[in-house]
């Protein structure tokens, strides 16, 4: 919210929220709590985009995932949610791709503009230290899927010119990587 404020953007001016998955640490910012304990949607004019698998699991989590999919994070935004199955070309240059792995409905985001590309692999590549495809988080529900997806996406995107954007990294906002895994450019936190 602070970052939006600094850019002079109001929450109601946001058109889309792209959700890689709905674990509580990624989704808490979609809702606020009033003094009477009621939850409300913060980006009330936005379409909230998420894979269908993720959305269905959030509403009916299993014995393992119920500790991370919280009703207070979805009930107030339910009417704004738009789902997709495998891939979604949301806008020119804005694409979401379902991967599974970290969660059954986990997705990654690809942004292109001219010859430039940035990708957000969210929690299947949570920090720059997770380049070894075998390194997955303890929260991954389907680790083998994370491993295979990361392998395939690295093949495509570790080209030395694609930006990898991070949410969980303490050191980098973004890095470019070559096929050998060397950092060729970076933006520090
Ligand atoms: Zn997660």
UniProtKB/TrEMBL annotation:
Residues 3-168 form the Metallo-beta-lactamase domain. The keyword Metal-binding applies. InterPro entries: MBL_superfamily_lactonases, Metallo-B-lactamas, RibonucZ/Hydroxyglut_hydro. Gene3D superfamilies: Ribonuclease Z/Hydroxyacylglutathione hydrolase-like. SMART domains: Lactamase_B. GO terms for molecular function: hydrolase activity. Belongs to the metallo-beta-lactamase superfamily. Pfam families: Lactamase_B. The keyword Zinc applies. Keywords: Hydrolase, Metal-binding, Zinc. This is Metal-dependent hydrolase.
